Amino acid sequence: MKTTAAKTDKLIELLLTFAKIGFFTFGGGYAMLAIIENICVERKKWITPDEMARLTVVAESTPGPIAINCATFIGYRIAGLGGSVFATLGIVLPSFVIIFSVSRFLDNFLEIGIVASAFKGIRLAIGVLIFEAAVKMMRKIRRDAVSVAILVTSFLVMLAVDLFAWSFSSVSLMLVAAFVSLLFFFIRNRKRGGSCSE
Amino acid sequence: MIYLELFLGFLRVGCFAFGGAYSAIPLIRDVVISSGWLTDDALTDMIAVSESTPGPIMINLATYVGSVKGGFLGSVVATFAVVLPSFVIILLVMVIFQRLMKNPYVEAVINGLIPCVIGIISAVGGYMMLRCCFATGADWAPDFKALFLTAFLALLMFGSKPLLRKKLSPIMLILISAVLGILFY
User: Fold this and answer.
1) pLDDT > 90 fraction of chain A, expressed in percent and rounded
2) Looking at the 3D structure of chain B, how many domains does it have?
3) Is B142 helix (H, G, I), strand (E, B) or coil?
4) Are residues A76 and A12 in the same domain?
5) Nearest Cβ partner for B54 among A23, A60, A69
6) Least crowded by CB within 10 Å, which of A43, A66, A87, B91?
7) Domain containing residue A101
8) What residues pair up with B18 in beta bridges, in sequence order?
9) Contacts for A88 with CB less than 8 Å, ≥ 6 apart
């Protein structure tokens, strides 16, 4: 049985951990995945790498900021409804405080020299971080031909979409991938003797 | 009533923004400009600020627009509205998650989505590195300073484990990159 005190500790830990993640996330949710992976999977072992991969899929295929999706998911896994509320609150809080102050007190935030140059440096790191998050997940997926083909195709298509500014949504790409995977699932089942049909 | 407008506008953003802030920017632009809250220029400035302050970009934008249009209460309302849909949807997913996972068809779909999402994410990362290191124009002129710094950061991130036997945390990398930015730009 968990005592109330232990439960409160858990909630506060969730709040503080996600506030820290929120504070160090620059450049949006994808960059955050690397930080969440590092803290929630490697250090705190709140979720397994496999769950992290599934979480990424869920976050990507549901609307809303990826960061919120991740915080709600992990918070719920660790401490139920209360956990999801505290984790979400934690991730929102730093941006809220910072942006609110910037919007009230600093008119030309980006014209402050040191801020602008620090951010130029951070921009360079964001691409590296996002790529690292992807590479880490790549190491842990199944290595059958279908998965590898889907991965490489998705990479090439999305890179082309970004480079040539095509209007093609990642959601459509995910629908295609889901369809292809389901198709191969049926083909494999049939090969296994066709006795699978109930 | 501005608070209700902010709530409904950002609820719409929260409900229909798939795949992170960058793909959501057209939607945000549509909501913000069609409501007459901001001009296009003001919004572009805000996006730049939202990108260069910590936190999810969509939250930053909601807080910012809310604060400008409706003060403290406005920013609370807008932020709450943008968070609400994903919060509720994820809770619903979690509740039915366990049961759904055992279904072989759902399993097959997810097994296809995982490599797809990894492909999408690596493309975003790759594109961001390219965009920082090369001028986005017809000639793709390389920016050698950015190239050198990016290569250095990538080496730190990917090479720290084999070289130093200690993995560099992403937060450390952000801090190092900020210092490098102040030193070199």
Assistant:
1) 23
2) 2
3) strand
4) yes
5) A23
6) A43
7) 4-141
8) A63
9) A18, A68, A71, A72, A75, B83, B87
Measured between alpha carbons, how far is B13 from B62 in angstroms, rounded to an integer? 9
Instruction: Provide the chain A residues 91-130 that lie in CB contact (below 8 A) with chain B.
Output: 91-92, 94-96, 98-100, 102-104, 109-110, 114-130
Q: How far is A2 from chain B (nearest CA, A)?
A: 22
Contact between chains at B83 and A26 (C-beta distance less than 8 A): no
List the single best residue of B6, B45, B50, B90 to mutate versus A (max A Cβ within 10 A). Answer: B90
Q: Could you tell me if B82 and B109 lie in one domain?
A: no
Task: Answer whether B55 sits within 8 Å of A94, measured CB to CB.
Answer: yes
Interface test with B, best of A84, A103, A136 (most B CBs within 10 A): A103
Hey, which residues does A63 pair with through a beta bridge?
Answer: B18
Digit-coded pLDDT (tens) for A113-150: 787 788 888 888 888 888 888 888 888 777 888 889 99
B41 and B128 co-located in one domain: no
Hey, which residues 45-64 in chain A have their CB within 8 Å of chain B? 53-54, 56-58, 60-64
Are residues A62 and B93, on separate chains, in Cβ contact within 8 Å? yes
Tokens (6 digits) for B91: 């809770």
Residue-wise pLDDT for B142-161, tens only, equals 888 888 888 888 888 888 77
Question: What is the residue range of B79's domain?
Answer: 2-101
How distant is the alpha carbon of residue A18 from its chain centre?
13
Cα–Cα distance list, B10 to A61, B16, B24 (Å): 19, 10, 12
